[in-house]
């Protein structure tokens, strides 16, 4: 199960409305950073047949099969702190992260 807070869902809905198209977002991981893995977000206009689809607060979230094992149970929030804003990921599979918070380990 992948979930979003209302704040994160509203942010995604606003972006999709501004784009004028899109089925939802894809959340995945890639190898990066000093801890090994980083989150990747992209809009989905046409879902991939292999994706797992979740619905959270009216937003479709697509996860590719390779990322699903690392992201099961993920909670996405959207935060604004001063001049910085972005998604915050609470991942029960995460064992650690780098000092700057850009990458994580499982």
UniProtKB/TrEMBL annotation:
<comment type="similarity">
    <text>Belongs to the HesB/IscA family.</text>
</comment>
<dbReference type="InterPro" id="IPR016092">
    <property type="entry name" value="ATAP"/>
</dbReference>
<dbReference type="InterPro" id="IPR011302">
    <property type="entry name" value="IscA_proteobact"/>
</dbReference>
<dbReference type="InterPro" id="IPR050322">
    <property type="entry name" value="Fe-S_cluster_asmbl/transfer"/>
</dbReference>
<keyword id="KW-0479">Metal-binding</keyword>
<feature type="domain" description="Core">
    <location>
        <begin position="2"/>
        <end position="102"/>
    </location>
</feature>
<dbReference type="InterPro" id="IPR017870">
    <property type="entry name" value="FeS_cluster_insertion_CS"/>
</dbReference>
<protein>
    <recommendedName>
        <fullName>Iron-binding protein IscA</fullName>
    </recommendedName>
</protein>
<keyword id="KW-0408">Iron</keyword>
<dbReference type="InterPro" id="IPR000361">
    <property type="entry name" value="ATAP_core_dom"/>
</dbReference>
<dbReference type="Pfam" id="PF01521">
    <property type="entry name" value="Fe-S_biosyn"/>
</dbReference>
<dbReference type="InterPro" id="IPR035903">
    <property type="entry name" value="HesB-like_dom_sf"/>
</dbReference>
């Amino acid at each position: 199960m992948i979930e979003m807070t209302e704040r994160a869902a509203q942010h995604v809905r606003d972006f999709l409305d501004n784009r004028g198209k899109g089925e939802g977002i894809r959340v995945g991981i890639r190898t990066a950073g000093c801890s090994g893995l980083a989150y990747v977000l992209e809009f989905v206009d046409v879902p991939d047949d292999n994706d797992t689809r979740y619905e959270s607060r009216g937003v479709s979230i697509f996860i590719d099969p390779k990322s699903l094992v690392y992201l099961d149970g993920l909670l996405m929030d959207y935060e604004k702190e001063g001049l910085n804003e972005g998604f915050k990921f609470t991942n029960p599979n995460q064992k650690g992260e780098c000092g700057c918070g850009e990458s994580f380990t499982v």
